[in-house]
Amino acid sequence: MTARRGLAVVTGASSGIGEACARGLAEAGYEVLACARREDRLTAVVEGIRAAGGSAQVQHLDVTSADDVAALVERIGDRGVDVLVNNAGGAWGLESVAEAVEEKWRWMYEVNVLGTLRVTRALLDGLTRARGAVITIGSVAGRYNYVGGAGYNAAKHGERSLTEVLRKEIAERGVRVTEVDPGRVRTDFSLVRFDGDAERAEAVYEGKENLTAGDVAEIVVFAATRPAHVNIDFVQVTPIDQTSV
Ligand code: 8X3
User: Fold this and answer.
1) CA distance 20 to 42
2) Residue 179 bridge partners (DSSP)
3) Backbone angles phi, psi at 107, to 5 degrees
4) Contact present, 85 and 9 (Cβ < 8 Å)
5) CB 38 within 8 Å of CB 113
6) Does the keyword Oxidoreductase apply (predicted)?
7) How far is residue 152's CA from residue 142's CA, in Å, rounded to a whole number?
8) Ligand 1 atom showing the smallest separation from residue 152 Cα
9) Which residue, of 34, 75, 159, 186, has the fewest CB within 10 Å?
């Protein structure tokens, strides 16, 4: 398959929703620059895409690192960026406000809000050149609050504010901005949240309908491939039994 649609940059592409977006966008004909911290897993993802006939490359990226973001910008050079998927992010902990751990809150703000800001701002020129699309993976946690969720809720609400304002500010450049807010998706999300406690993580998904990362990626690809005058502002998507949101 040859890349027909231009360049798609995906953060957090080594697993879960990011990996599925990288695969889906490559299948749709984009040349994917797959970005993540874990280069071994990222390399496996990229090899899988290539084996399926798609176009993809590995880019080491920790969204909390200004140097890594600068290296990403340098790699892209004066190319246009047709799609940026801001997927890197996550939750850490489920403590009550009374028991809040500042380090965890700081990390969640850093990856979900500042990471999205840092990468998006750095690629704005490229996105403008291509009249591209920014697609940010938010969460239902950015719309509805829950007990134990305050740190993650606050970060995802912050990311949503950033995304909404960005849409209003850069529409005049022809850059589209979409937020996709998934509910429960079976990924490593809960494993990360619970510090690698597999049993606790599995309990989140056990006996429930769960979205797959692929379900979310289909929406991302759909939003990315709309005509230039069509902006999908946001999509909330949940498994059918997640009626709490
Ligand atoms: C996570 C969404 O519903 O699993 O971003 O808490 S949920």
Assistant:
1) 12
2) 136, 234
3) -60, -45
4) yes
5) no
6) yes
7) 8
8) 5
9) 75
Q: For 92-131, write each residue's pLDDT tens digit.
A: 999 999 999 999 999 999 999 999 999 999 999 999 999 9
Q: Provide CB contacts within 8 A for 113, sequence distance 6+.
A: 155, 158, 159, 162
Computed over every residue of the chain, the mean pLDDT equals: 97
Fold of 6-237: Rossmann fold (3.40.50)
Assess whether 152 carries a catalytic annotation: yes
Cα-Cα-Cα-Cα torsion 80, 88, 24, 130, nearest 10 degrees, comes to: -10
Token pair of 32 as six digits: 């994917």
- Determine the straight-line distance between the first and last CA of the chain, rounded to whole angstroms: 40
Query: Two tokens at 5?
Result: 């649609």
Residues in the chain, total: 245
Residues 240, 197: Cα–Cα separation, whole Å: 26
Bridge partners for 36 per DSSP: 60
Number of alpha carbons in the 13 Å side-chain half-sphere of residue 87: 30
Whether residue 132 has its Cβ less than 6 Å from ligand 1: no
CB 142 less than 6 A from any atom of ligand 1: no
Is the pTM value of this prediction over 0.85?
Answer: yes
User: What are the two backbone dihedrals, phi and then psi, of residue 200, each rounded to the nearest 5 degrees?
Assistant: -65, -40
Q: Residue 137 Cα, ligand 1 centroid: separation in angstroms?
A: 11
User: Which of 87, 140, 145 maximizes ligand 1 atoms within 8 Å of its Cβ, making it the mutation to test the pocket?
Assistant: 140
Q: Is the CB of 141 under 6 A from ligand 1?
A: yes
